[in-house]
Amino acid sequence: xxxxxxxxxxxxxxxxxxxxxxxxxxxxxxxxxxxxxxxxxxxxxxxxxxxxxxxxxxxxxxxxxxxxxxxxxxxxxxxxxxxxxxxxxxxxxxxxxxxxxxxxxxxxxxxxxxxxxxxxxxxxxxxxxxxxxxxxxxxxxxxxxxxxxxxxxxxxxxxxxxxxxxxxxxxxxxxxxxxxxxxxxxxxxxxxxxxxxxxxxxxxxxxxxxxxxxxxxxxxxxxxxxxxxxxxxxxxxxxxxxxxxxxxxxxxxxxxxxxxxxxxxxxxxxxxxxxxxxxxxxxxxxxxxxxxxxxxxxxxxxxxxxxxxxxxxxxxxxxxxxxxxx
Length: 326
Description:
There is one protein chain. The chain has 12 helices and 11 strands. The chain is of the alpha/beta class and 326 residues long. The termini are far apart.
């Protein structure tokens, strides 16, 4: 053990003794796989693609059989026909099919819509409601129902506890089924930012004002460190560029990105979009949860270079000054 390792171990011991949250810089210690697959349209065999992704990631039936799987889509705005705003129903249906095919005991979908008090309005007008009804997949409104206060495992905000829906806490596997979009406050919104939607509006307001006041980047990391999601699926078949996450324009990218380590998934998505992960504040903070560097992300499926499609970012929005090389 050299002096540097000794100092790291000593610091970790002090932090644990003090009850503090500390994860050593995982950039130099961890490698994680991320799968990128091509899907030209929502009519493609998305379930087959997801099965290939899970096989590549070794996320096999032994981890899924008999489990309750919670799918958390990005349902933001109830705008009919605007498929670039919300996670597309075809991706959620394909994810449910995939988990059932690997032996899942139950698959549910949950969301706490951030802009409206009524999550069911977003569910119906987005087209997700019909898809779930046809497949008999239950929906849970995280803006309603019982919650439990749990310790904030991130410790970056001043919030000592986070109030999480009991339905979320009861799930065996939590899957962030996000949309690939720009964001006028966070720079991008991908699998990590998507977990804002598990936080009940009855506690955190609309659109999650309490978390915004705490700082979006810090809140994103606190939520992810506390919820500990098991998998990310990012719908980049048609994403959003420009003034996201609602007012932007469609961007056909033709990809699905899948991985267990959400910071690594989002770093990969950022590179596909033409952004530098290290310029995105929440990702810089999230490196404690997983690696961002390409040298520590084991690429599976397609290469970033082969599927990259630069999104339009708006330089007059400070959070979007994140283009690679810019």
